[in-house]
Amino acid sequence: MVETLVLPEGLKLESGAHLAPLEIAYARYGDPANPVVYICHALTGDAEVVTWWDTLIGPGKTIDTDRFHVICSNILGGCKGTTGPASTNPATGERYGLDFPLFTVRDMAETHRALLRGLGIEKVYAAVGGSLGGMQILQWSLDHPDEIERAVLVCATARLSAQNIAFSKVARHAIHNHDAMDVARMMAHITYLSEEGMELKFSRARRVPGAEMTIQSDFEVEHYLDHQAKIFLARFDPHTYLYLSRVMDYYEPFADGPAAPPTKYLLVSFSSDWRFGTEHSVYMEEQLRALGADVRHHEVESPWGHDSFLMDVPEYHRHVRDFVYQEAAATL
Amino acid sequence: MVETLVLPEGLKLESGAHLAPLEIAYARYGDPANPVVYICHALTGDAEVVTWWDTLIGPGKTIDTDRFHVICSNILGGCKGTTGPASTNPATGERYGLDFPLFTVRDMAETHRALLRGLGIEKVYAAVGGSLGGMQILQWSLDHPDEIERAVLVCATARLSAQNIAFSKVARHAIHNHDAMDVARMMAHITYLSEEGMELKFSRARRVPGAEMTIQSDFEVEHYLDHQAKIFLARFDPHTYLYLSRVMDYYEPFADGPAAPPTKYLLVSFSSDWRFGTEHSVYMEEQLRALGADVRHHEVESPWGHDSFLMDVPEYHRHVRDFVYQEAAATL
């Protein structure tokens, strides 16, 4: 069940803007007496983590809600209950839309911290996130290293490449200039899969083999993209897409010269991920090691590209399990 | 200078549709007494090959217009003088638009052949094309192997992958549903460059370092995409984009079981090309060898992705020179 914490005093953003009130939608699973595992979701997720990340999280799963108290909140700027561009701007009584202030991954991490303070929790046993989720945890751990004992960053990045920013730009251009979030979503799906994964899944199969040529959708991969775009338009706010894609472009936490974190890190990357591939995790690994951090990094073979973090890839789950339960027998 | 051949009887397309009249815009360079090198252009090119392919073709260049008679025509379905969706439909007196018949790469090759017949030319010393240009030459050489002595196929393909078709689909969806050819062009530019090339060219440079965050273009790579989209909108027809992208999706010449071609082939692919990368050329090489063809394939190191075929990459030019001039001392 999703609950909402309302902070009337709001949050002062890194830009200086003051966002008030701040509402944070969150969900909790398992016994509050158990160690806390905090989940940060990625671009299009929400607080109900046992639904969209059920490969990893739930009763008896790798992140076992029978043994941990799992908390996840909709992220700042989101459209699933936490204050974002679709929320009402108290200054106008209208939706914020493009008047919503620009924010940073640090602001997103501060929102998670505000939630935990509201729940009376000072530190977490582990924090876990994939992609933009991992980016939030990394920033949080660098800013407040005593609050996260173990950080699991799956196919995350600490610095988008020019190509990453380019895809991000095209998505924003489609949304902003053409009201075409469906185009943005289709393009994103191509970057979430791998060439190899798409070949395995679709190859050149046509819905009606041997039919006449058509300019309309014909190949199965086309129908897949049509379907993904349609369901996404029904569930997501275009302004949230604009803001969250932009947050990622500017993210560069190691440029701030952070201090040595006592957090222990597990980085997982996937062999066929070409969105935030292994070189992104290698960069984080190098930067964290240079700070003296305890960090391990595993590249896991998988044909499913960036999407692998949401899938049941046994070697990846084994690394997460080994890391999360290590030295934990006494506690758990 | 671009001239136009008008064929009142038109062309019967592979689909059975009859396209009449057929106009073919073409340009010729160098002495007509010299051996003919025929150029097929790619998606967005035109007949004036010494302009857009001046790295390779011109006086004293690798394809030397002082030694060869170079001919290039705007391709079928194009928007630079040859009959296409922007032409007038004689049945209605209006632009064809989406009433233009669907056509195939074979129809494109037949258009080139019709031009040559009109010019009184029966066979060519060499045919050269990159990307979609190479695809036309491959089809032509398989259908009429006696007409092309030497074929140079640069970063071409004989079968688009699921990922290729997916990008093609998103481009068409943007144009067809959102009148957003700018989005299609921006996305295409990402696929024409490589991750490495974009990093070398743009990295994370911002137009105004240290300026405030903005949802508008800020990083240099964003301004580059804005610029490319703007100039493209001014020069290209969206319907041509729709049709030519679709032609490529359906292309699969080896599925027809062609006969052994006497044409000699040079295939060049580029190490960082992820649109029609080396695996595409390897597939063509294998298929041509299985037919008993004389084929050589070189993968050339280059950071510039698919765009490498338009650039001055010395090793690539050397392979083209060696191949085009081989056994040719007497003739030339």
Report the uncertain regions of chain A.
none
User: What is the element string of chain A, with H for helices and E for strands?
Assistant: EEEEEHEEEEEHEHEHHHHHEHEH
Side-by-side strand order of the widest sheet of chain A: 1-4-8-5-11-12-13-14
Q: Oligomerization state of this entry? A: homodimer
Summed up:
Two copies of one chain form a homodimer. Chain A is built from ten helices and 14 strands.
Describe the structure.
Chains A, B: GO terms for molecular function: homoserine O-acetyltransferase activity; homoserine O-succinyltransferase activity. Chains A, B: Homodimer. 2 copies of one chain form a homodimer. Chain A is globular, with a radius of gyration of 20 Å. The model of chain A has no long low-confidence stretch (mean pLDDT 96). With 332 residues, chain A is α/β, with parallel strands linked by helices. In chain A, the strands form 4 sheets. In chain A, strands 1-4-8-5-11-12-13-14 form an 8-stranded mixed β-sheet, sandwiched between helices. A two-stranded antiparallel sheet of chain A has the order 2-3. In chain A, helix 2 (105-118) packs across helix 3 (132-143) and helix 4 (162-178) packs antiparallel against helix 8. Chain A folds into 2 domains: 3-158 and 252-325, 3-Layer(aba) Sandwich (Rossmann fold); 163-242, Rna Polymerase Sigma Factor, Chain: A (Orthogonal Bundle). Chain A is 36% helix and 19% strand. Chain A is built from 10 helices and 14 strands. The two termini of chain A are 25 Å apart. Chain A has helices at residues 49-52, 105-118, 132-143, 162-178, 181-192, 195-201, 220-235, 238-250, 278-290, 314-325, and strands at 3-7, 11-12, 18-19, 22-29, 36-40, 57-58, 63-64, 69-73, 88-89, 94-95, 124-130, 148-154, 264-270, 294-300.
